[in-house]
Amino acid sequence: MSREHNYDAWDGTSMATPHVSGCAALLIAKSLAAGNKLTPDQVKQALMQTADKVAAMNGTNFSTDYGAGRINLLRLLQ
């Protein structure tokens, strides 16, 4: 049985947006289950603070090319 896979990889916001919004949704769901309600700014800060910095960011916390870094869902939800 042959299966065809039509996956693609792009850079930029078109590929990052669904990943970031999915992580934000999981964080919000966890927060609500614990009886807390996060503000949009709190969600943004949590995403940025738990992101893994990438080498190309040269030690900065934010870059126009890499944002806050690579999402780390495990750290976000801990």
Account of the protein in words:
This protein is an all-alpha fold and 78 residues long. The chain has three helices and no strands. The protein has helices at residues 13-33, 40-50, 73-77. It starts with 12 loop residues before the first helix and ends with a helix. The relative contact order is 0.15. The mean pLDDT is 91.
Main pleated sheet? none
Tell me the number of strands.
0
Mean of the pLDDT scores? 91
The amount of helix comes to 40-55%
Helices and strands: which structural class? mainly alpha
Q: Count the helices. How many?
A: 3
Stretches where pLDDT is under 50 for at least 5 consecutive residues are none
Rg, alpha carbons: 15 Å
Strand content: under 5%
Give the H and E element order: HHH
Question: What is the overall silhouette?
Answer: flat
Q: How far apart, in Å, are the first and last alpha carbons?
A: 41 Å
